[in-house]
Amino acid sequence: MVKDSSEKPAEKARAVQQMFSEIAPRYDLLNRLLSAGIDQRWRFIAAQAAIEKKPRRILDLATGTGDMALLLKRLAPQAEVIGADFALPMLEIARQKARKLGLEIPFQQADALALPFPDARFDAVTIAFGFRNFADYDQALAELYRVLAPGGRLCILEFPPPPKGGFGELYRLYFQKVLPWIGGLVSGNPSAYRYLPESVERFPEPQTLKAKMEQAGFQTRYRIFSGGIVALHIGDN
Ligand SMILES: C[S@@+](CC[C@H](N)C(=O)[O-])C[C@H]1O[C@@H](n2cnc3c(N)ncnc32)[C@H](O)[C@@H]1O
């Protein structure tokens, strides 16, 4: 089980990898159920930002079951799209989905904190709902900066801490009470769906993530949408 932020990075990484491996078979179903399908719309917005500069080589990191990689390949069929993740059962589902759709996407196992790619290998990197889970944000950003070619673009789609005010409180109620209950019931892994709201509460505010990205070398801007529950950070190097 993934514990709190006091956990050592290597332990957190192992626990996250195990958790996603366990929930892989139910991951897509729960995504659609818990977000009422709007998660695909969020990925679409991020994918459009990622392909704006017509990248030839795109990495979808923390690709999970591959939804973002599949979308990128559909939107930019000429581009080489690679999906990478450290949880093999998630990748296996991504591979099956790509095969079914006849899309040519290599899915490979990789750790975001030590990417097995040479410097300047990609023109764009996307990370949808994966960055929050990394055990060391600064190390991940350094790796992302390294594998992006000059002029490249990083797009991070994430759940920031819930907004303040009435809507934020309602959302918190849903996120902290309803979601873990449904998630636990359907996935058979209640702790995984308790981890989700906990990790969101601990995640840096958008302004702080922007500062971290700038420290790593990215020129960064962000936008927040869906009432403040999702943020897209765009970093150009
Ligand atoms: C919430 S899922 C997101 C999956 C997918 N991007 C999506 O949009 O549905 C987070 C993914 O991040 C992966 N992940 C977490 N830490 C990672 C790391 N250090 N290296 C590679 N993948 C990682 C997990 O295995 C999991 O598949």
UniProtKB/TrEMBL annotation:
Q: Could you tell me which pathway this protein works in?
A: Quinol/quinone metabolism; menaquinone biosynthesis; menaquinol from 1,4-dihydroxy-2-naphthoate: step 2/2
One GO MF term on file is: demethylmenaquinone methyltransferase activity
Enzyme class, UniProt record, top EC level? transferase
Query: Does the keyword Methyltransferase belong to this entry?
Result: yes
Entry EC no(s): 2.1.1.163
The similarity annotation says: Belongs to the class I-like SAM-binding methyltransferase superfamily. MenG/UbiE family.
Q: What is this protein called?
A: Demethylmenaquinone methyltransferase
- Organism per entry: Allomeiothermus silvanus (strain ATCC 700542 / DSM 9946 / NBRC 106475 / NCIMB 13440 / VI-R2)
